[in-house]
């Protein structure tokens, strides 16, 4: 058994493949890789550096721009301040967002590690293919919950684990930098403990909103 890195409950051994052991938490639904199998930070950084940057940038922009358009429809004629957490969007896209009257700060632990952007709150926070890399999702979730201001939005892209019986054959778990895997129930748990409204969770897109009321829940994970 191992402690769940999200809810701190005891998790059960789930499966073992050729390289890693995985555990399943029945309390929050998280599946996670054994901490002993985590890559060293410098090795993980090298893997990021070898990634297909052009393809990743296109995917990231295709995630950010529709999200910004959707929020703008909900809050027309509003200057929005957002945070792109865990990835770095290209300068042309940032310029386009600025030209539309919005601001998008960026934080990436390897390539944009600016702690100052984590000292304010935002109208929206977006995380594209980041959650699966969280080694301490409890810590990261607490941070993200604080970064979203009341009434603000949190948009997440990570492939949802929809069938536990298929996990052993799931290609997404073969990437050694992917250490945390989420079911819809996992995001339902995170929303509940933090007082967020879970608006949508399907396939690889999750959308939450922090209530604007003064009685926002602040239950610790």
From TrEMBL:
SUPFAM superfamilies: S-adenosyl-L-methionine-dependent methyltransferases (SSF53335). Keywords: Methyltransferase, Transferase. GO terms for biological process: methylation. It comes from the Bacteria. One of its GO terms (molecular function) is methyltransferase activity. Pfam families: Methyltransf_23. The keyword Membrane does not apply. InterPro entries: SAM-dependent_MTases_sf (IPR029063). This is Class I SAM-dependent methyltransferase. The lineage of its organism: Bacteria, Pseudomonadati, Pseudomonadota, Gammaproteobacteria, Alteromonadales.
